[in-house]
């Protein structure tokens, strides 16, 4: 095993072969014929790789009605967007659970079956998690997604009428300098996966059908292990 210093870079030869400095790059022989590894001689001269402007996480999708057991659809109806969003986040985190299991574990302070959800933050506790709240700007969503966290979001005026919960799985066209983005990608429990919600302000979205949604009343959040 050989250590060679060249141009401020220390290289380790794993193949016990001689390495020859060649101006600004170092050519490393390998056991694979025709394969060369090129390394810059001065790491300080490298330009930083910019962060991506788009992120999308591979989150399992669950429909809030179609994925209910047949014998529970009359009771639950289309009221379970909150529990469904939690179930998707749990499955992404590796929890072996289903929509109906999440529904049946949630106390009435979080979700009343057949009616509506309330304090979704506490719903994370049924599987040993806490809710990490974030802000409502593109930068807040970008940071969470970049760290590998799908974000549960509550929007108002969904379909021009009600509040709604869904899971943000991605972001497009993010600009860190202006704290703007083109859109959020969301698993909408009511319609389908990977729906595009266009940003029209720091905390306002336009849903695919055209209605303008505000982010809130609940703050966006993601799961963190207790």
How would you describe the overall organization of this protein?
This protein is α+β, with helices and mostly antiparallel strands and 226 residues long. It has two domains: 2-45, no CATH class; 55-225, Cysteine proteinases (Cathepsin B, Chain A, Alpha-Beta Complex). The protein contains five helices and 16 strands. It has a six-stranded antiparallel β-barrel with strand order 10-11-12-13-14-15. Strand 4 (25-28) and strand 5 (37-40) form a beta hairpin. The model is unreliable at 1-43 (pLDDT under 50). InterPro entries: Peptidase_C39-like.
Give a summary of the structure in a few sentences:
The chain has 226 residues and is an alpha+beta fold. It contains five helices and 16 strands. The strands form five sheets. It has a six-stranded antiparallel β-barrel with strand order 10-11-12-13-14-15. Strands 3-4-5 form a three-stranded antiparallel sheet, with no helix packed on it.
Summary tags:
Cathepsin B, Chain A; disordered N terminus; globular; single chain; six-stranded antiparallel barrel; 2 domains; 226 residues; three-stranded antiparallel beta sheet; 16 strands; alpha+beta; 5 helices
The CATH class of the largest domain is Alpha Beta
CATH topology description of the largest domain: Cathepsin B, Chain A
Shape: globular
Q: Could you tell me the radius of gyration in angstroms?
A: 24 Å
Question: Average pLDDT, to the nearest integer?
Answer: 85
Question: Helical content, roughly?
Answer: 10-25%
N- to C-terminal separation?
Answer: 45 Å
The count of domains is: 2
Largest sheet: 6 strands, antiparallel, barrel
Name the assembly state: single chain
In CATH terms, the superfamily of the largest domain is Cysteine proteinases
| Strand order of the biggest β-sheet | 10-11-12-13-14-15
* Low-pLDDT stretches: 1-43
How much strand content do the residues show?
Answer: 25-35%
Instruction: Assign the CATH architecture of the largest domain.
Output: Alpha-Beta Complex
- Helical stretch count? 5
Order of helices and strands: EEEEEEHHHEEHEHEEEEEEE
- Beta strands, count: 16
Protein name: Peptidase C39-like domain-containing protein
Domain Peptidase C39-like: 57-189
